[in-house]
Every structure is written in C-alpha cells, then in structure tokens.
Specification:
The protein is of the alpha+beta class. The protein has 2 domains: about 35 residues, no CATH class; about 170 residues, Muramoyl-pentapeptide Carboxypeptidase, domain 2. It is about 35% helix and about 10% strand. The chain has a 5-stranded mixed sheet. The protein binds zinc ion. The site of zinc ion has 5 residues, from strand 7.
Length: about 280
C-alpha cells in the first residue's frame, strides 16, 4: 500500500472516536506532519518500516523457539496451478511443479510466486516449486521419520512440528530443472537459478529464509532453495540489510518495547507480539 494512502487510512481509524466533533477534524497539513514524524497517536515509532508496511500474518516467525499451534494453517489458502504451454507457445500462468503432488500456499504468497516465476521465464530462468505448505501433522511425520533414519539424532534438516516455515504457507522450496529430482544440498547455491533468485526475490516479496552466514541464528543449515514470502517492504529491508527473519524480529521487538516504554498504545503493536505455542 502506498505510504501516503496508508497514513490517511490510519488517521481515519484514529479519527473514528472523534467523529462528530468539528474542532478535531484532521487537515491535510496534519497528515503530512504525521507522515514525516512516523508516530502512532503521537508516540514516535523508531523502526525503519511503518506498521502499515508490515503484515503481522506475512512476517510470522516459525522456528524451534517460536512454535506455531497445531491447528495453524494459511488462510486464505490456494492450490498452485501447474504450468501448461498453450498451442501458441504462451503459458497459462501456472508454476512448474517438481512433482505431480498438489501444492498449496497462502493466497498472496502464491500470487507473488506466479509473478516471480513468470519474470524468471522472460530471462530464461525456469524454476520449479518442489515443496510448499505443509501441515503440522505432515511435519510431525517427516520429523519422526528423519529421527528414526538418523538413530534418534536431530541433524537440523527437518524442523520439529510447529517449527517449520512451511506450516505458514509462506515458505517455498524452489529449484532448477536439473535439481528437480535430486535430494537437496548446498551445491544448488552455485547454479544460475539460485543466483537469480537471490538477486530478484525481494522485488517479489520473498527473502532467502536460511542464509549461509546466519546458520548460528536460524539454527537451520544453509538452504539456497528455501524462500519465504514476507511482502515487498519487509523483503527489501531484510535483503538490503543482510538479515535473517529472526534478526528482523529481534529489531522489531526492540522497537515495540521502546514504543510501549514511551507510552505507545499496545493496540497498535499487539498483533506483532507473537507468542510461541506450548512445546
Ligand atoms: Zn523448505
């Protein structure tokens, strides 16, 4: 959303309780001032991104310390159409799936992924969606299968149920043609497709979820194929500042604490204060 429009919307919301009082009508000058200061109800907001530029649903964290509830599923959810090449050589706007399996994503993420894949095609980059939304139950099965295979040891390749980015419906494993059927490893990073994805992801609202230099923070091995949708403003901020999602949340939480300490209204920020489901 355009920043100016979102500021107007915010002001309209703030003005609701004052309706009917002529003295408290907002003027255009007030709007401009609000835009420059970036305050909420006159309390300064120090984070580089406005609240309106961050959708709490899209930036939701899932890791072993921040577990998603069992029943948590993307809403709205869409099935990803398979790409078909039509008679005239054009495509139907679907994605290439690495398997025949039905894949689902959160709606906004799915639409952004289609645009990103289409952009790739125009530059000779053909991408395949290998894995998308996974339910808590599916993750549970995968995790315990992996443990069994590994003599009970958690090797960091499969997340615990509730801890998987795939449960958000915003995490996508994306590969090139030659990696469609292979089991994944970090050598994928040296492909042309992986380089193109890293370079262009933010413009479509995606981030590299598990970067190589953040393994000690994410506690997940480098995954050059796993991209996460967070929306364009957040994706740009994260990729430009070389952060991982965990670091982004740490910064955001510090800004929220500061806002509240300065007397900010909890109702503005509450949706961003995620709590872990019970272990
Ligand atoms: Zn993944």
């Amino acid at each position: 959303m355009n920043r100016f429009v979102s500021v107007i919307l915010t002001v309209c919301l703030l003005a609701l309780p004052c309706l009917g009082s002529a003295e408290e009508e907002f003027m255009l000058e007030d709007l401009v001032e609000l835009e420059e200061l970036l305050t909420y109800n006159n309390v300064e907001w120090t984070f580089p991104l406005a609240l309106e530029d961050m959708d709490p649903v899209l930036i939701r964290l899932a890791n072993k310390h921040m577990l998603l509830p069992k029943e948590d599923a993307p809403d709205p959810i869409v099935s990803m159409p398979a790409r078909k090449v039509l008679k005239d050589g054009s495509t139907n706007g679907g994605v290439n799936k690495a398997s025949g399996v039905e894949m689902q994503l959160q709606k906004e993420c799915g639409e952004a992924l289609l645009s990103w894949f289409e952009a790739g095609l125009t530059e000779g980059i053909t991408l395949y969606l290998k894995s998308a939304y996974r339910s808590w139950q599916t993750q549970n099965t995968m995790y315990y299968n992996r443990l069994k295979k590994n003599n009970g040891k958690d090797d960091g390749w499969v997340s615990k149920p509730g801890a998987s980015d795939h449960q958000t419906g915003l995490g996508c494993d994306i590969v090139s043609r030659s990696w469609r059927d292979k089991s994944m490893n970090e050598k994928f990073a040296s492909t042309q497709e992986a380089a193109w994805m890293k370079e262009t992801c933010a413009e479509y609202g995606f981030i590299l979820r598990y970067p190589e230099d953040k393994q000690d923070i994410t506690e997940i091995n480098f995954e050059p194929w796993h991209y996460r949708y967070v929306g364009v403003p957040v994706a740009r901020y994260i990729m430009e500042n070389n952060l991982c999602l965990e670091e982004f949340h740490e910064q955001l939480r510090a800004a929220i604490d500061e806002f509240l300490a300065n007397g900010g209204d909890l109702r503005y920020v509450q949706a961003y204060m995620q709590v872990s489901a019970e272990q």
